[in-house]
Amino acid sequence: MKNRTHLMFVLMMILVPGVGGQAQEASPALPVAAVQTSAVIEQTVPTLIEVVGTLQAVERAAIAAKVTGVVADVPVVLGSRVTKGDLLVKISAREIEAQLNQAQARFNQAGRNLSRERKLLKKHATTAETVKSMQDQYAGAQAAVQGARTMLSYATITAPFSGVITVKNVHAGDLATPGTVLIRMENDQKLQAVCAVPESLVLQIRPGQSLTVTIPTAGLIINGKVAEVAPSVDPVSRTAPVTIDLSYNERMRTGQFVRVKLPGQANASLFIPDGAVLPKGQMERVFVAADNKAHLRLVRTGMRQDGLTEIVAGLNPGEMVIFKNNEHLVDGQPIKIK
Fold first, then answer.
1. Is the pLDDT of residue 7 over 50?
2. Residue 321: closest CA among 282, 283, 273, 279
3. What is the mean pLDDT of the chain?
4. Domain residue spans of the chain
């Protein structure tokens, strides 16, 4: 009997409101949030493909000796800045000087002989054939003088253009021989990027086309203009070299690593305003406006450009996304579109 009375008391505690505890309170209604929306738009954008390359000077030269001789003077050092016509290397060329003197003496003698024979021809004391022979000797001696002077000029090596010395392989007292590279120089004010473009993309590149070049070590992103496109493809690498002219920047150096963005095939993508995407940890969220409520969606984003974010997955074209006053929204909250 006692157990039966206890059981009835427990049932009354459960069934009768207000007995044995307070009744559960109803959750408060969410406030209506005033928001701004934008439609999910579809745009056709080109796919960008990145290739790597190297910076090099447009003007560069490997300066070699053309005559044999002992180096008498090298007035430049590694890193020296020179202007066009400045002396780079002076080679002692006494043998060539002697050859020039001999050629000059023969030339003078040939001139005197020709003058004498012409006077004799006027007096009918010689023949026209003899005068013609003297003229040929005079022309040959003149050519020998010009040749010797040209060879002697090779002993003085000057800068072919304004630039900077990048390699110096010679010192005073060294023996210079024809073909031996003595100095390398380049114009570091005019640089270009050189990259190998896959054969599948090279037909889309044209001279004069603008391409984006990134130089990571210099922290630069530059728009360059295509200067040259190789007419043939390397059968081993299946690539073709392309050169891109760049505007000068003091942080650029020859040999630097560069990245070049090339246009690929155009694809259709979905875009929404940057403000509509709400990062949370490793997730990216978007609130979609539908039926006067904010509905939470998880999305996957792509590239960003001109204030728009590409949506790879999670949304459909034409849906309305909330991009203003969306930071504190919760899923299912009532909204009012401004």
1. no
2. 273
3. 87
4. 33-45+268-337, 50-59+187-266, 65-91+155-186, 94-153
